[in-house]
Amino acid sequence: MRYLKLFAFIIFFVLAMIFFVQNTGPLSSTLELKFELLQWSWLSKPLPFYVVVLIAFAVGAILSLLYFLVEKMRLSGEVKKYKNKVRSLEKELNSLRNMPLEESNYSTESASSAVSEPTPATDSAEKSAGSEESQEETSFK
């Protein structure tokens, strides 16, 4: 990926140089920039057009660089926060895994009530379901 980016940059640079060489006349024409705000006025000295284009490109590159630098710092902070959270959760998980089980936490009464004994109603339902299955098997034969 790094070589692909470098290759794209070189292609862009070569195309820009070809553009500037082919358009030397129009790009060399002078340009005066003027800025007026209320009573304040500013007038630049005459500059070739290509210098204005290069300055605009450089300013845009610097502003983009600053934006992405700030974004990278923000994301690095988030990554650090989440790594700390993962580390604390792993520590908690390990402490829970290593916690001994105590018999006093489990009573035998709750375990015996959880297993229901069959009642006569459920016994008859199971028998009738079993007889229906055997009837279906015989009817298919």
TrEMBL record:
- Recite the UniProt keywords alphabetically: Cell membrane, Coiled coil, Membrane, Transmembrane, Transmembrane helix
Q: Which GO terms describe its cellular component?
A: plasma membrane
List, as start-end ranges, the regions of compositional bias called Polar residues. 104-122
Database matches in InterPro entries: LapA_dom
The coiled-coil segments of this chain are 72-99
Q: Where are the transmembrane segments?
A: 47-70
Residue intervals of the Lipopolysaccharide assembly protein A domain: 42-94
Renumbered to this chain, region (Disordered) spans 100-141
Q: Which Pfam families match?
A: LapA_dom
Supply the name of the protein: Lipopolysaccharide assembly protein A domain-containing protein
Instruction: Write down the species.
Output: Desulfohalobium retbaense (strain ATCC 49708 / DSM 5692 / JCM 16813 / HR100)
